[in-house]
Amino acid sequence: MLSTPRLIDHNGGVKPTQPFADLRTDINIMALDGLVAFWDFATESFTCRVTGLELSAPTKPPAIIDAPGAPLGSHAIRLEAGQYLRLPREQCTHIDFHGDRSAFTLVSWINRGTSESGECEFIAGMWNETRMKRQYGLFLNNRIWGGEDKICAHVSATGGVSTGFRCCFDAAMGAGKIEGGRWTTVAMSFGGGEARAWQNGRLDGLSEVNPYRLAAPIFDGGPVGSEFTVGSVHHHGSMGNQFVGEIAGIAIFARELTPAEHLVLASP
């Protein structure tokens, strides 16, 4: 049974809502409409339960650990500094959201660790800054818009930087801080020209940058666009923006989930 949902207030604090546990049932993620990718590491592998495609580890593979109490069961991957997973561009057709096919939702269940780099922390997406092939990416601790320790739902219409800046400022920003040492459901969605950041099943605050309106559909990287990565992105010529911690699962939908669906997938 999933836990009682929690509400993020506009000041960035977290407060419980009324109990919903008696109204909720266990949910089969595989049965949800629009699911195009789902990694839960339950089989102690990096294999997608929807497509059968396997994430590879270019460096030392992250450990698949026993994680009693993890949101999706009893396993998770543990990412240390320098570790990440990837899916080659040519295998990303089902998660290559752009143009008229820009609507999507990406949900991940994480237990944030401590990164020594001081950089923002990348969870998952298709985002290559070195080659100006940004599409979408779920980050933490991105300092644009005052996003320290918060969710950043990055999207790009051009693949490059924002006009007048050295980086991309197109992102929906969460309001509540992501604490370490506990499981948190983090998510991003895009549809109707707007990106949204979600924490534990709730729209994470409501401000001028959540939702965030993008001027055009998501960038089409073409055949040589970004690959899909977990835990790190390519920027300044090498891999960086390392996420350190545990990930119990990643689910991607080719549509925007409803607020009720976000809530039932949450496991604070």
Molecular structure report:
With 268 residues, the protein is mostly beta strands. Helices cover 3% and strands 37% of the residues. The protein has one helix and 19 strands. It has one helix at 259-265, and strands spanning 6-8, 14-16, 35-39, 63-70, 73-79, 85-87, 104-112, 121-128, 133-140, 151-155, 171-173, 183-191, 194-199, 202-203, 212-213, 228-230, 233-235, 238-240, 245-253. The strands form four sheets. Strands 3, 4, 5, 7, 12, 13, 14, 15 and 19 form a nine-stranded antiparallel β-sheet that branches. A six-stranded antiparallel β-sheet has the order 6-16-8-9-10-11, with no helix packed on it. The longest helix has 7 residues, at 259-265. Mean pLDDT is 88; it is low at 1-22.
State the total count of DSSP E strands: 19
Please report the first level of CATH classification, the CATH class.
Mainly Beta
Strand percentage: 35-45%
* Mean of pLDDT: 88
Anisotropy-based shape: globular
Derived from helix and strand composition plus strand pairing, the structural class reads mainly beta
Which percent bin holds the helix content? under 10%
